[in-house]
User: Fold this.
Amino acid sequence: MTTAPVELLNYIGGAWRRTASGERGDVHDPATNERIAYVPLSAADEVDAAVRAAHEAFPAWRETPVTERIQPLFKLKWLLERDIGELARTITRESGKTYAESEGEMRRGIENIEVACGMPIMIQGWNNEDIARGIDEHLFRQPLGVVTAIAPFNFPGMIPLWFLPYAVAAGNCFVLKPSERVPMTTQHLVRLCEEAGFPAGVVSLVNGGKPTVDALLDHPLVRAVSFVGSTAVAKYVYSRATANGKRAQCQGGAKNPAIILPDADMDMATRILADSAFGCAGQRCLATSVAITVGDAKAPFTERIVEDAATRRVGSGLDEGVQMGPVINAQSKARIIDLVGKGEAEGGEVLVDGRGRTVDGFADGYFVHPTVVSGVDPRGTLATTEVFGPVLTMLHADDLDGAIALANDRTYGNQACLFTTSGAAARAFRHQVRAGNIGINLGVAAPMAFFPFSGWGDSFFGDLHAQGAHGVEFYTETKVVVERWPSTWSRKF
Ligand code: NAD
Assistant:
């Protein structure tokens, strides 16, 4: 059954507003290609209105005790739990992932709210009494002012929550710019922020694309920019934000390797790596994209992963039993198919071919089935380019050192995983491999909310990562106070 597309709005200074420019984009359900919403494409004056409203709200919010600032977050957690089913369905409709994946994503987002509710402790400073006789020194953390986050399409529920809870609990006012491809979940999230009782201007929403981002990057009242998306845009956002004197933390793309040693539990490694490579249709920044077998691991792992890829149930993420949904849009599907073709042209053998396969009842959906390609050139296009689709490239090495060298031969550094039963191998791997998030017998090593999301290399531009203590540092500036209070009174004790 088709329904009329929803008209989405911006949320500025505590009021829901249509875009004044009248410009809007279409939002499609990737499983059906049905148009499900219109998203405002906001112009610079609307960004200005949102930033000014946030700036006006800042003095009072900053003066609000941290114990009071976290109260709307406690309520927001409860509201998200209340609406989790509806939110998960919206995520599935606009991004294509399965309902279970969507619900899991919301849970990981909620964890960040729970951690940020500890802000009374996390924002504490340091102090030393008597750094010289009768002189004390203190470090305080103070909020920056107006901060913004620019989000990608692949986790519309979770990624805004990597930033929002820490930013507002630390006393900042937050302007969110979701991906124009998946703006419906964020609209729901911001409605819940309103219901949770944040004062007007503390949380704002401006929808749009590149011009909206540029207006945020250039606005003199925006103090800090958090970004998650592709590497090319992450680099651009980082350069422009920092050139404008802002703090920036910009998470980029990935090409994650996983090494399988012969002593690994092959059934477990296959189950975990199939989920890592094909879960969320491969559209996770922590998806394993390159599997490197070592020595005798090649035959048993290849046999099992081929079997899994060929039998994975692909369909609409809202249908029971479906293990993998569509990719986000037609361009993405075309790009994935093109990259597999390049891998073939570079000498690769396509062991499982997900190109050109359809899903019954969803002829217009953007489906690519799981694909496994072996024997590709390790320096070639398929082995080095982010695919962001359900494609696993297989490489092979004679020993662990050779496999680590292959894993390190890439510019990205989001994640690297190892499958083994040897503690010594695991220790050597984690010590030598160049990536910021490491999994041992894990395929998606997503850090908990109280650890930083530690991308390296071309997967991250900046110093302080998202989540936990890094988030608190990013959203506060330190003020050091040295003080002397001349008195004879205290010397009596
Ligand atoms: P994207 O770079 O196309 O878009 C991300 C955001 O930037 C969107 O809000 C978009 O509107 C905006 N944008 C796009 N082009 C822009 C431009 N030229 N100038 C200014 N702003 C622009 O990314 P995407 O396709 O939405 O998301 C997928 C990418 O995100 C993948 O590369 C994936 O690896 C990456 N990602 C990384 C992480 C991580 O933690 N490192 C997490 C999730 C996704």
